[in-house]
Specification:
Layout: H1 3-36, H2 40-47, H3 50-71
Helix pairs in contact: 1-2, 1-3
């Protein structure tokens, strides 16, 4: 992979990471509000929606790291 191609792909990975972390933060905020309102069971149910987003963030992070190493940047 050329450094130029890697840079483009890394930027896309970082964008995807940001989008998913923003979504995860919104979910966590909703769960926190639910817990503060006295419904911790519902809060846990809500926050479990973060699991897939965290998995995707980790995958994108690993991809960006690998591309960075392979491109010699």
């Amino acid at each position: 992979m050329t450094p130029e191609a890697a840079n483009i792909a890394i930027r896309e990975c970082l964008k995807a990471i940001r989008e998913r972390l923003e979504a995860a933060a919104a979910i966590a905020k909703a769960a926190d509000a639910c817990a503060q309102a006295g419904n911790p069971d519902k809060a846990v149910t809500i926050v479990l929606d973060v699991e897939q987003l965290v998995y995707e963030v980790n995958t994108y992070l690993n991809a960006a790291s690998l591309m960075n190493r392979c491109s010699g940047s």
